[in-house]
């Protein structure tokens, strides 16, 4: 072989080596994150999700990518957003909220789905059973609908003179029917009257509060759903303006002036979702991961708001609170 041919061959091999090495690098897996909420209302929770990924060996931007799809409180956008993630061929979909989980399930039977829902996932049709989910879905149940009676009981304890409670629901939320049914049943047992108010837009929220004021409801119970989370400042301001005591499902409401909140720790449930998502990326099948039940719940009381409303918080309620905001 001539010296020039040998050098040319050697040079070609030198170029081929990095190309071959590059071709052997595994593609970074992509997680599709689907939520009916908005990104600005989920910053703390997303830190929990990323922590769950990190605890199981994945760091966003280093060895895993996340494609985010936020419906911004518009539930009718969820099916199209889920379809986008399916076309993107993500490795797994993390679906947060009942409606997001239902949309993801309808979009694919092949891509694994990790849900974070507030209603019984069997009742929602997501899994066959909690212990043996079957199919391509598993996840976490945060018991928002199961806690309806407890939340109403806490509101009654805070406002013992209340006889008429307004229940604000979003009809497009997948769990609204069960919330209305369970709240009515719990209210009857407590001797309370229930007034159901529907709202799917900011304008409808204003109209619902106008009805609340006209009907002179004594207290307000807000249905757990992402749309109301994304409008929490609006809701808390209206409740404050009308001086109506209200209980919410998420501590984020109490932190900005809502009277009280009770529900699962969403940061912790998101962390659990991150762990399950990572396990699936490592090869575990959703059918082999039983649905987790949230075990960390938080009662948060805004004492400053209580004083503003002229409410003396019962000592027993203060003692049970996980956090009292002064």
Description:
- The chain has 13 helices and 13 strands.
- Residues 1-24 have low confidence and may be disordered.
- The termini are far apart.
- Helix 2 packs parallel to helix 11 (266-281).
- Helix content is 44%, strand content 19%.
- Strand 1 (30-35), helix 2 and strand 2 (65-70) form a beta-alpha-beta unit.
- It is elongated and about 60 Å long.
- It is an alpha/beta fold.
Present the secondary structure layout.
Layout: H1 3-24, E1 30-35, H2 43-55, E2 65-70, H3 78-87, E3 92-96, H4 98-107, E4 113-117, E5 137-141, H5 148-158, E6 164-169, H6 176-190, E7 193-198, H7 202-215, E8 219-222, H8 226-230, H9 232-242, E9 246-248, H10 251-255, E10 260-264, H11 266-281, E11 292-293, E12 297-302, H12 303-308, H13 315-320, E13 323-325
Parallel strand pairs: 1-2, 1-3, 3-4, 4-5, 5-11, 6-7, 6-8, 8-9, 9-10, 12-13
Antiparallel strand pairs: 10-12
Helix pairs in contact: 2-11, 3-4, 5-6, 7-9
């Amino acid at each position: 072989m001539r010296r020039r041919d040998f050098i040319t061959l050697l040079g070609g091999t030198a170029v081929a080596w990095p190309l071959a090495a590059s071709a052997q690098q595994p593609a970074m897996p992509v997680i599709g994150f689907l939520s009916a909420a908005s990104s600005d209302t989920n910053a703390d929770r997303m830190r929990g999700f990323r922590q769950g990924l990190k605890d199981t060996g994945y760091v966003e931007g280093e060895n895993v990518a996340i494609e985010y799809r936020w419906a911004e409180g518009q539930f009718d956008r969820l099916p199209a957003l889920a379809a986008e993630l399916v076309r993107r061929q993500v490795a797994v979909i993390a679906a947060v909220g009942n409606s997001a989980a239902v949309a993801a399930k309808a979009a694919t039977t092949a891509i694994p789905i990790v849900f974070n829902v507030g209603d019984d996932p069997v009742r929602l049709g997501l899994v066959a059973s909690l212990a043996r989910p079957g199919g391509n879905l598993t996840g976490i149940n945060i018991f928002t609908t199961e806690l309806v009676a407890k939340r109403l009981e806490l509101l009654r304890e805070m406002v013992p003179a209340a006889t008429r409670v307004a229940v604000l629901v979003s009809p497009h939320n997948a769990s609204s029917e069960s919330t209305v049914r369970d709240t009515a049943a719990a209210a009857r047992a407590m001797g309370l009257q229930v007034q159901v108010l529907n709202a799917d837009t900011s304008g409808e929220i204003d109209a619902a509060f106008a009805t609340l004021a006209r009907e002179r409801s004594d207290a307000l119970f807000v249905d757990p759903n992402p749309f109301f989370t994304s409008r929490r400042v609006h809701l808390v301001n209206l409740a404050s303006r009308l001086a109506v005591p209200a209980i919410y499902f998420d501590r984020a409401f109490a932190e900005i002036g809502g009277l009280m909140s009770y529900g699962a720790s969403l940061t912790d449930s998101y962390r659990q979702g991150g762990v399950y998502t990572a396990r699936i990326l490592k090869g575990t099948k959703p059918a082999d991961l039983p649905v987790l039940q949230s075990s960390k719940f938080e009662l948060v009381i805004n004492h400053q708001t209580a004083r503003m409303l002229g409410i003396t918080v019962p000592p027993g309620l203060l003692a049970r609170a996980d956090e009292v905001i002064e």
